[in-house]
Design brief:
The complex is a heterodimer of chains A (450) and B (271).
Chain A: H1 3-20, E1 24-30, H2 36-42, H3 46-57, E2 62-69, E3 73-80, H4 100-113, H5 117-120, E4 125-128, H6 129-140, H7 152-166, H8 174-191, H9 201-213, E5 220-224, H10 228-239, E6 244-248, H11 252-262, E7 268-271, H12 277-280, E8 286-289, H13 299-308, E9 314-318, E10 335-339, H14 340-406, H15 414-449
Parallel strand pairs in A: 5-6, 5-8, 6-7, 8-9, 9-10
Antiparallel strand pairs in A: 1-3, 1-4, 2-3
Chain B: H1 2-25, H2 29-56, H3 65-87, H4 93-109, E1 115-116, H5 124-159, H6 172-204, H7 213-235, H8 239-258, E2 269-270
Antiparallel strand pairs in B: 1-2
Helix pairs in contact in B: 1-2, 1-4, 2-3, 3-4, 3-5, 5-6, 5-8, 6-7, 7-8
The chains are: A alpha/beta (450), B mainly alpha (271).
Chain lengths: 450, 271
C-alpha cells in the first residue's frame, strides 16, 4: 500500500470521525421548562405517535427520529445528516436563531402540530451529542422525572422506541443508543434504591399494607366515610390486588355511589350501614377511615374486632382530622394504625431516600455516558483501521503471488515460503503502525474537542 | 477428602453468612446473588461429605454427636434455600447461616472419634427415627426464627420506622405462614420419629426405656409441640406470645437433646 493511499484513508477517516460524532440532536420541553398549556400543544397522543414519527423521519436531513410524548415531557431525538461538529456543536442553536439541524424539527412542529418556533422558544431545551446521550440516559433512568424514580417513564421510552422501529425511524444509530439507555436504566434500578420507595400518601399506605399482608390478593378494604384521599387510597389498594371493597357512610346513597364507582368485574363491592359498622368491621383487613367524627374506633371495639378475626392483623389508615381511630388502638397486638401525619412522614422519609439514591444514580449515568461516547467515537476509527489492514493484506498477498510466479521454475520450499510470509507480515505491521496510531489519536482529539 | 468437602462447605456457608447481611439488611440484590449460590454449593459439598462419611462407615445416617450436628446444619441450610425459593426472602439466612457454620465447623476441624456400639445402627428404622427427629428440630428452629422476625417486623410497623434500606423483613402474614407451616411440617416428623424410636426401644430394651428422663422429656416435647400448633391454629396466636410459646418448646427441645448425657438407655457410643 502506497503512503498516498494510506494517507487518503487516514484523512477520510478523520472526516468520518468528525461527521459521525456530531449528529445527535435532542429538542424538548418538560414539566420544569414549560407550563401545561405549552406541553399540551406539543403532546402527541399514542395513536398518532407512529404517524408523527414517520412524518418527522421524512423531513429532509433527518436520518433517524424518535418522539417521546408523556404528560410531563415532549422530546424529539434525531440523527441528522451533515451536522457539523466542532467547538460550536454543544451551543444552543435553538435560542441563538435556529440553524439547519433544528430547522428540520421546527419545520416538523410547524407542519404537523401547527406550532411556530417563537411560541415555544423560551421553553425548549436542546442537547447535542454527548449531552443528548446523557439526557436520554437520565430520562430513561427516571432522574429527570417530576417524581424521581417513578417507573412509568422507562415503559414510555420503550413504547416510543417500539413505534420508531416499526415505522423504520429508529435504525443503526438510535437503536443501540436506546438499548443502552434501557440497560443503564435497569442498572440504576438494580444498583440503587431509587425505585424502591413510594412517595405519595396513597402509595405509602398501599406499601404498608403489603408489609403487613404480603400480597393483597383476596383482601378486603373497608372505606368508612367518603373523601378524595380515601377514595384514592382505596384505588391504590385495589390496584395492588385487594378484591373486595366495603363502604360505610352516614349517607347510604353516597356509600352506594362510591361502591358502584369502584366496582369492576374483579372487585366485589358492598355497603355497610353506619349503625352496623362495628358488627361488620371484622370482615375487613384494611380499614380506611375519614369521617372526622372522632374516635369511631376505640381500643374496646378494636379488641372485639381482633377477637372476631382470631387475631389476624388489621390495618387502620386514618386520614381524618380529628382522628377516627384512638391512638391507643395501635398498642394492641395485631392492630396497626397510621394517621395522615404518619403517612406523610413516611412519604417524606422516602423522598429523602430517593434523593440520596439519585446522587448514586447520577454517577452511574455519568460513567455510562463516558463509556458509550468512547465506544461510538472509536467505531468509525475501528472501521477505518480494518479497511487499512485489509488493503495492506490484499497488497501483500498480491506481491507474494507475483514473487511465486517469478520463481515458478525454482519454487520456494515451504520453509522459505513461511519465512517470506513472516517477513512481509512483520513489515506491513511496522509500516502501518504510525497510520493506525495517528487514526486513534485523531479520534481521541475529536472526542476531547466535543 | 470427606473433611475437605466439609471444610469447603463451612467456608462457603461463611461467605453466604456474610453476603446475606447486605442482601437482607440493606436490600442489595447483588449480594443475594452471592449468598444463595454460596449456600447452595456449600450444601452440595456438605451433602457429599456426609454421604462419603456414612458410606465409609457402612451406614446411612449420622449417629455420633458431630455427625448429627453437621446433619442438622445441612437441614437448616436446606430450610433456608427452600424459604428463599418459596418466599423470595433471604432474611432467615441472617440467623440460619451462622448457626449452620457453627454446627458444621466443629466436625469439620475437630472430627469426633466416638464408636457406635448400638447393634441396630445399620437398620432402616433407626435411620428413619434419627432423620425424622432432626427434621422436626430444624422445623421447630425455623418456626422460632419466623416468630422472632414477626416480632421485629411488628415492632417496626408499630413504631412507624419505614426506612426502605432496612426493609429486609418479609411481610407479617408471610412470616406467620412460614412459622405455622414449619410447625405443621415438624409435627408429623416428630410423631413418626418418636413412634419408630419407641417401637425399636420396646423390642431391644423393653419397658424400662420409658422411665428414662430423655424419653420422658421427648414425650413432653411432643405434647408441647402439639399444644403450640393447637393454640396457634385455634386462637391465631401471633407476635410476642407466639415467640414465648415457641421459645418454651425450643427450650424443651434443647433439654431433650442435652438429656442424652443423663440418659442411661439412650446412649449408644463408647467414648
Amino acid at each position: 500500500m502506497s503512503d498516498r493511499s494510506s494517507i487518503r484513508i487516514v484523512r477520510s477517516s478523520a472526516k468520518t470521525v468528525a461527521a459521525q460524532t456530531s449528529r445527535l440532536l435532542l429538542l424538548g420541553v418538560n414539566h420544569t421548562t414549560a407550563p401545561i398549556s405549552v406541553r399540551e400543544r406539543l403532546a402527541i397522543p399514542t395513536h398518532r405517535l407512529a404517524d408523527a414519527t414517520r412524518t418527522l423521519a421524512d423531513q429532509p436531513g433527518i436520518r433517524e427520529a424518535l418522539i417521546l410524548s408523556t404528560c410531563n415531557r415532549v422530546e424529539i431525538l434525531t440523527v441528522q445528516d451533515g451536522l457539523d461538529g466542532g467547538p460550536e456543536a454543544d451551543r444552543d442553536t435553538f435560542h441563538s436563531g435556529p440553524q439547519a439541524p433544528a430547522l428540520s424539527v421546527i419545520r416538523f412542529l410547524n407542519e404537523y402540530l401547527q406550532i411556530r418556533a417563537t411560541d415555544i422558544e423560551p421553553h425548549v431545551y436542546e442537547f447535542r451529542e454527548r449531552e443528548a446521550i446523557r439526557h436520554l440516559f437520565r430520562v430513561a433512568s427516571s432522574l429527570d422525572s417530576m417524581v424521581v424514580g417513578e417507573p412509568q417513564i422507562l415503559g414510555q421510552v420503550k413504547q416510543s422506541w417500539t413505534v420508531g422501529r416499526e415505522v423504520g425511524a429508529v435504525k443503526s444509530t438510535l437503536d443501540p443508543l436506546l438499548q443502552r439507555a434501557f440497560s443503564v436504566a435497569k442498572k440504576v434500578r438494580t444498583e440503587t434504591q431509587i425505585g424502591n420507595t413510594t412517595v405519595s400518601v396513597a402509595s405509602v399506605a398501599a406499601e404498608l399494607a403489603r408489609k403487613i399482608f404480603g400480597s393483597l390478593e383476596g383482601k378486603t378494604v373497608l372505606l368508612v366515610g367518603a373523601g378524595k384521599m380515601s377514595d384514592l387510597t382505596a384505588r391504590h389498594l385495589i390496584q395492588q390486588g385487594a378484591t373486595m371493597l366495603l363502604v360505610s357512610n352516614r349517607t347510604e346513597s353516597r356509600a352506594q355511589a362510591i361502591a358502584d364507582a369502584l366496582r369492576t368485574p374483579s372487585i366485589t363491592t358492598g355497603v355497610i350501614p353506619l349503625d352496623q359498622l362495628h358488627q361488620q368491621t371484622h370482615r375487613a383487613d384494611i380499614i380506611i377511615t375519614s369521617t372526622g367524627a372522632g374516635q369511631v374506633f376505640t381500643p374496646e371495639n378494636a379488641r372485639a374486632l381482633l377477637q372476631r378475626r382470631k387475631n389476624r392483623p388489621v390495618f387502620f389508615i386514618d386520614i381524618a382530622v380529628p382522628r377516627d381511630v384512638a391512638p391507643a388502638v395501635n398498642k394492641l397486638e395485631g392492630c396497626f394504625v397510621y394517621d395522615i401525619d404518619d403517612l406523610q412522614q413516611v412519604a417524606i422519609q422516602n423522598k429523602a431516600v430517593r434523593n440520596r439514591e439519585a446522587e448514586a444514580a447520577e454517577s452511574i449515568v455519568t460513567r455510562e455516558v463516558a463509556r458509550y461516547s468512547d465506544r461510538i467515537s472509536q467505531a468509525p476509527v475501528t472501521e477505518s483501521i480494518k479497511e487499512l489492514l485489509l488493503g495492506a493484506e490484499a497488497l501483500r498477498q498480491q506481491e507474494i503471488a507475483r514473487i511465486n510466479q517469478q520463481l515458478s521454475r525454482q519454487p520456494l520450499t515451504p520453509e522459505q515460503l513461511a519465512a517470506v510470509e513472516r517477513l512481509t507480515k512483520s513489515l506491513t505491521g511496522k509500516l502501518l503502525h504510525p497510520q493506525i496510531a495517528a487514526l486513534r489519536e485523531m479520534a481521541a482529539d475529536s472526542e476531547s474537542d466535543d | 477428602m470427606t473433611l475437605l468437602w466439609l471444610r469447603l462447605a463451612v467456608i462457603l456457608y461463611g461467605i453466604a453468612a456474610l453476603a446475606v447481611l447486605p442482601a437482607a439488611l440493606y436490600n442489595r440484590p447483588r449480594w443475594r446473588h452471592i449468598a444463595l449460590p454460596a449456600a447452595f454449593t456449600g450444601a452440595f459439598f456438605h451433602f457429599v461429605s456426609i454421604a462419603e462419611t456414612l458410606y465409609a462407615a457402612h451406614r446411612a445416617l449420622p449417629v455420633d454427636t458431630h455427625e448429627t450436628l453437621s446433619m442438622l446444619g445441612l437441614l437448616l441450610i436446606v430450610g433456608f434455600l427452600i424459604l428463599a425459593a418459596r418466599y423470595r426472602t433471604v432474611s432467615f439466612g441472617i440467623f440460619l447461616l451462622p448457626i449452620a457454620v457453627l454446627l458444621a465447623i466443629v466436625p469439620a476441624f475437630d472430627p469426633g472419634h466416638e464408636k457406635i456400639v448400638y447393634p441396630l445402627v445399620r437398620t432402616g428404622w433407626i435411620m428413619l427415627h434419627i432423620a425424622l427427629l432432626l427434621a422436626a428440630y430444624a422445623a421447630m428452629f425455623l418456626s422460632l426464627i419466623a416468630s422472632l422476625l414477626y416480632l421485629i417486623q411488628e415492632r417496626r410497623l408499630k413504631q412507624k420506622r419505614m426506612e426502605s434500606k432496612r426493609g429486609w423483613l418479609p411481610p407479617l402474614e408471610t412470616l406467620d405462614q412460614i412459622g405455622l407451616n414449619a410447625l405443621r411440617f415438624g409435627l408429623p416428623c416428630m410423631t413418626a420419629g418418636l413412634l419408630i424410636g419407641s417401637v425399636l426401644a420396646l423390642q431391644t430394651i423393653g419397658l424400662s426405656f420409658f422411665a428414662d428422663p430423655k424419653v420422658l422429656l421427648s414425650f413432653a416435647m411432643w405434647i408441647a409441640y402439639i399444644l403450640m400448633i393447637f393454640i396457634r391454629s385455634r386462637s391465631g396466636l401471633r407476635g410476642r406470645r407466639a415467640v414465648y410459646l415457641s421459645s418454651f418448646v425450643f427450650l424443651v427441645m434443647i433439654a431433650v437433646w442435652a438429656a442424652n448425657s443423663l440418659s442411661a438407655v439412650h446412649r449408644f457410643k463408647t467414648p
